[in-house]
């Protein structure tokens, strides 16, 4: 069972225990759960599919912040203030289902169900630490290393000893938004990674996790791979 499966089962149980009043929403690819500027009046927990969190600047430039997997909460900013607005847009990458939970229900459950509150806060802390790591990666690492790290994080580790792992469908434009570079640069380095045996294509991208991780940490025996990931 992968990490996403663990989250899905775990939080599904906690939502039941907390007795949350919730409803299922289903979205088609490219539909938005909510958009930047919408009223922040509920929290979501993704059940199936994949979604992305993005933000648009005042001059219209869009950036993808992160991807969501089954079991992930999103829209939790609604808990910060009763009359807040969304600071990001969350869009379905493929067919998705999610629990939609009213803000008042989440607040009630967190006050009345301490186990649920602890679990939820632990989840938020872990994601905050992941966001900090992403920021450090964005500031200090080259675009090649950022792409390698992003591919590793996206890989679906269904088996601990699995050599190849498949990432969810994603365009090179979205990858470019996530790592702060251009689509052509992503295409160039994806081809280099494939030629070096770090990834493969077969309709979907398969990440050769041990090889890519070794290259990212400077332990890959192939000299070209080290040069790719250490290039300026």
Task: Give me a quick take on this structure.
With 232 residues, this protein is an alpha+beta fold. The chain is built from 8 helices and 11 strands.
Mean residue pLDDT: 83
From N to C, what is the helix and strand string?
HEEEEEEEEHHHEHHEEHH
What percent of residues are in strands?
15-25%
Relative helix content: 40-55%
Structure description:
The chain has 232 residues and is of the alpha+beta class. Helices cover 44% and strands 22% of the residues. It has helices spanning 3-18, 103-112, 114-140, 143-154, 172-179, 183-195, 209-216, 223-229, and strands spanning 22-27, 32-34, 42-48, 51-56, 62-68, 73-74, 89-92, 96-102, 164-166, 199-201, 205-208. Strands 1-8-3-6 form a four-stranded antiparallel sheet. A four-stranded antiparallel sheet has the order 2-7-4-5. The N and C termini lie far apart (38 Å). The model is unreliable at 1-6 and 157-161 (pLDDT under 50).
Quickly list its features.
22% strand, Arc Repressor Mutant, subunit A, 4-stranded antiparallel β-sheet, alpha+beta, 232 residues
Task: Summarize the SSE layout with pairings.
Elements: H1 3-18, E1 22-27, E2 32-34, E3 42-48, E4 51-56, E5 62-68, E6 73-74, E7 89-92, E8 96-102, H2 103-112, H3 114-140, H4 143-154, E9 164-166, H5 172-179, H6 183-195, E10 199-201, E11 205-208, H7 209-216, H8 223-229
Antiparallel strand pairs: 1-8, 2-7, 3-6, 3-8, 4-5, 4-7, 9-11, 10-11
């Amino acid at each position: 069972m992968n990490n996403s499966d663990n989250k899905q089962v775990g939080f599904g149980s906690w939502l039941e225990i907390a007795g949350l009043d919730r409803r299922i929403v289903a979205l088609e690819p490219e539909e938005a759960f909510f958009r930047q500027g919408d009223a922040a009046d509920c929290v979501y927990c993704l059940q199936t599919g994949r979604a992305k969190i993005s933000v648009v600047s005042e001059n219209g430039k869009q950036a993808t912040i992160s991807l969501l997997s089954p079991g992930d909460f999103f829209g939790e900013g609604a808990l910060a203030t009763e009359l807040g607005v969304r600071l990001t847009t969350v869009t379905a990458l493929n067919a998705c289902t999610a629990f939609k939970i009213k803000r008042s229900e989440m607040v009630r459950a967190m006050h009345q169900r301490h186990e649920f509150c602890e679990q939820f806060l632990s989840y938020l802390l872990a994601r905050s630490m992941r966001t900090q790591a992403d920021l450090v990666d964005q500031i200090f690492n080259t675009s090649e290393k950022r792409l390698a790290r992003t591919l590793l994080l996206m890989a679906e580790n269904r088996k601990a000893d699995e050599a190849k792992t498949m990432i969810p469908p994603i365009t090179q434009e979205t990858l470019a938004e996530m790592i702060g570079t251009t689509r052509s640069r992503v295409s160039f380095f994806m081809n280099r990674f494939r030629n070096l045996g770090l990834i493969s294509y077969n309709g979907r991208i398969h990440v050769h996790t041990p090889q890519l991780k070794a290259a990212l940490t400077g332990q890959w025996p192939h000299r070209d791979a080290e040069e790719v990931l250490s290039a300026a």
